[in-house]
């Protein structure tokens, strides 16, 4: 069960401290996703983000549409649960920039403001989840925590706003949602019809055996 935890204060590190932490980090990496410290003090590295989206996302059908808003060719679908994506970022990239880069990488047409980045930590058999502010720097958090994802992992979710604010969605998005709901409703209806048809066949077969003259 997730437990909300307050945001931890940012501790500013000297260039020497950053260099030491990067060396320690790289010595513990097992997937070759190491960090690199540049001469200007900015470092680069990789973070993995798990997608935990409850609502469907709208994806542009081609790269040429990336300059447009929503078009009739955009498609909406549910992202597979547990999908993990890797991003190469720098220590200057903020949470908001990471969300925008992640959506751009997969041609997601939805407004980045609909999403939030969370950090998830495992401590004392409990899972602590905290929504990161737009100004925080994910690569710094990754560096401080080390490369082990069980110590710290990142999760992309929709904003937890209680009820869905449908007015924040565009007309094409809402139309796509309706098409998805209609499809799911029809699929569930067919499943129910097959299930009850099977029950009816078994009942009729049982009744035939009971009333069979003998």
Features:
two-stranded antiparallel ribbon; alpha+beta; 2 domains; 7-stranded mixed beta sheet; 214 residues; Ubiquitin-like (UB roll); elongated
Summarize this entry quickly.
The protein is an alpha+beta fold and 214 residues long. 34% of the residues lie in helices and 22% in strands.
Please write out the topology.
Elements: E1 2-4, H1 15-28, E2 36-37, E3 43-51, E4 57-59, E5 75-77, E6 84-90, H2 95-105, E7 115-123, E8 126-131, H3 138-145, E9 153-158, H4 171-210
Parallel strand pairs: 1-8, 3-9
Antiparallel strand pairs: 2-3, 3-6, 4-5, 7-8, 7-9
Tell me what you see in this structure.
Its main location: cytoplasm. One of its GO terms (molecular function) is zinc ion binding. Residues 71-161 form the Ras-associating domain. It holds the Pfam family RA. This is RASF3 protein. The chain is an alpha+beta fold and 214 residues long. The chain has two domains: 15-60 and 72-161, Ubiquitin-like (UB roll) (Roll); 167-209. The protein has helices at 15-28, 95-105, 138-145, 171-210, and strands at residues 2-4, 36-37, 43-51, 57-59, 75-77, 84-90, 115-123, 126-131, 153-158. The strands form two sheets. Strands 1, 2, 3, 6, 7, 8 and 9 form a seven-stranded mixed beta sheet that branches. A two-stranded antiparallel sheet has the order 4-5.
């Amino acid at each position: 069960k997730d437990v909300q935890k307050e945001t931890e204060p940012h501790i500013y590190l000297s260039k020497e401290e950053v260099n030491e932490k990067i060396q320690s980090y790289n010595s513990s990496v097992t997937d070759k996703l190491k960090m690199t410290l540049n001469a200007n003090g900015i470092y680069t590295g990789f973070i993995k983000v798990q997608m935990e989206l409850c609502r469907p996302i709208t994806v542009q059908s081609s790269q040429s549409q990336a300059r447009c808003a929503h078009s009739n060719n955009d498609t909406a679908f549910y992202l597979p649960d547990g999908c993990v994506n890797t991003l190469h970022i720098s220590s200057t990239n903020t949470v908001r920039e990471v969300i925008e880069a992640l959506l751009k990488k997969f041609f997601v047409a939805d407004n980045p403001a609909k999403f939030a980045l969370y950090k998830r930590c495992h401590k004392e058999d409990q899972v602590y989840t905290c929504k990161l502010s737009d100004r925080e720097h994910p690569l710094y958090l990754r560096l401080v925590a080390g490369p082990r994802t069980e110590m710290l992992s990142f999760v992309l979710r929709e904003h937890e706003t209680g009820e869905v604010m449908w007015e924040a969605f565009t007309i094409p998005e809402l139309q796509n949602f309706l098409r998805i709901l209609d499809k799911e409703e029809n699929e569930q209806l067919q499943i129910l019809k097959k299930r009850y048809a099977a029950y009816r066949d078994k009942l009729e077969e049982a009744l035939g055996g009971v009333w069979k003259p003998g």
